[in-house]
Write the structure tokens for this entry.
Amino acid sequence: MRHMAFATGLLVMAITTSCASVSAPETGSVSVDRPSRNPSPNAPAEPPKTARTVALSLPKPTGPQPVGTTSLHLTDTSRPDPWDPGSKARDLMVSLWYPATKTGGRAAPYMSIKESELTLKGSGVTGVPSDLLAHTSTHAVSVAPPAGKTRELPLVVLSPGFQKTLSSLTGLAEDLASKGYVVAAISHTHENLATVFPDGRVATCTACQVEPHDQDFWDKVGAIRADDVSFVLDELTSPSPSWEGARLIDPAKIAMVGHSAGGASSVAALLKDPRIKAGMNIDGLAIVPVPASGLGKPFLFLGAQATRTPGSQEATSWETAWQHMSGWKRWLVVAGTEHASFTDTALLGEQAGLDTGATMPAARSMEITRAYVAAFLDLHLRGTPQPLLDQASASYPEVKVCAVEQKSCA
């Protein structure tokens, strides 16, 4: 049997770029998104990143509805943890954001004090209190009563980058919930700096120590994440769901959006699970290949112009995947951004005085990310036309629509 226990929100993020893109390596390995901090124990350490102590905060959600949040501890006893051979089950933490019935109440913590300590240490950030991230201001109210009619709300699964946990997508999740979506973000255990469970156990990044990070490795990551997603969908859409608000979810309207390795893994999840109707890869190399048989579900690539423009070396994996996508598809790039620009990481890092490498202000890149993710979901889960996805917009001139065959974006 599968066992579930509820827990209040414990969210983790890192104040450094989530995964740095690398150029194609020599034959025998694969071009991938890798952590900016090399996890090999024999690798030279990066110099510390000195931040300043400031009040960190996420921008307010842009939708009309108040937002609630809760956290679930889910245990899949049908499989051992793939990164822990001695385990008997796969434990996951999942955070939910959803439209709420009221605005009052305490905002949920961004993460616990322990998670803040582990995140800052693992990211090499110095010069700030270890609990800095625990005091980041959010906008979702803990365990607020959900609002909506039975089977009314679309469901969006969020998957973070490799080494990063689900809290790096909190700003996006809160915004989607304010626009009437239920959002489930998964902390893929042993693939991030720290997953903290309600009983105090801490799972660290076992997968970070695995070498080499070749195609076999990323195939495993994609398969594990696809299994994680299907299990979470089972728990949220079964006749006896793991969340009391699950009655609001429309099981016919489910999509997956991921950043970095999470975006790449959306292909694996789309191929595995027919319940997922559309997928999106935000600035992750297409390390999970699309088979020659094709992928007919709607798919959106959104990435940094400097590295994801068709014809560039680091866009090769996207071009290969693009050739096998037979459904609705778009390829968009954003000028002035870098890998972390599409997550909370760049925003909070900028507030703390760290250089993320982007020329676009992080608040603007989050505004763009929120707008385009919502447009994609509104089109494919709600059937609302979205000209924003078809042509350049005067509201977002930084975003370019790419003509892949012509290897140009305008």
About this structure: Residues 215-237 form the longest helix (23 residues). Residues 1-47 have pLDDT under 50 and may be disordered. The chain is about 25% helix and 20% strand.
